[in-house]
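Onboarding guide, step 5: your first structure request.
Type a short instruction followed by the sequence, for example:

Predict the 3D structure of this protein.
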Amino acid sequence: MSTFQLSQSNINEALARPIVLIDFYGPKCHSCKSFAPIYEKASNSNPDVLFAKLDTSAEPDLANGFNVKSLPTLIAIKNGQIAAIRTGILMAGQLDQIIRSLR
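The system replies with structure tokens like these:
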């Protein structure tokens, strides 16, 4: 599975999934660009998890609704509840640890 582009029109559908990771990013954010391939690779290895991406410049209201203040920010949601929030670039092992904890 590859990543799912999150928007106001599909947020409810996405959050209905049991485990959701949301990568809040900006198109001009260098740290976000560095994290993108790590996130994409993890999405291919974990088909039971919805890996969503939210462009904060295109969807500022959604980003504000999640109180995102810095980029990149990863928010992990389990059964509709926020389970973890991490800011900055995560290494593959750190991302894997978050996914394991959600299962």
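Each response can be followed by summary notes, for example: The chain has a mean pLDDT of 95.
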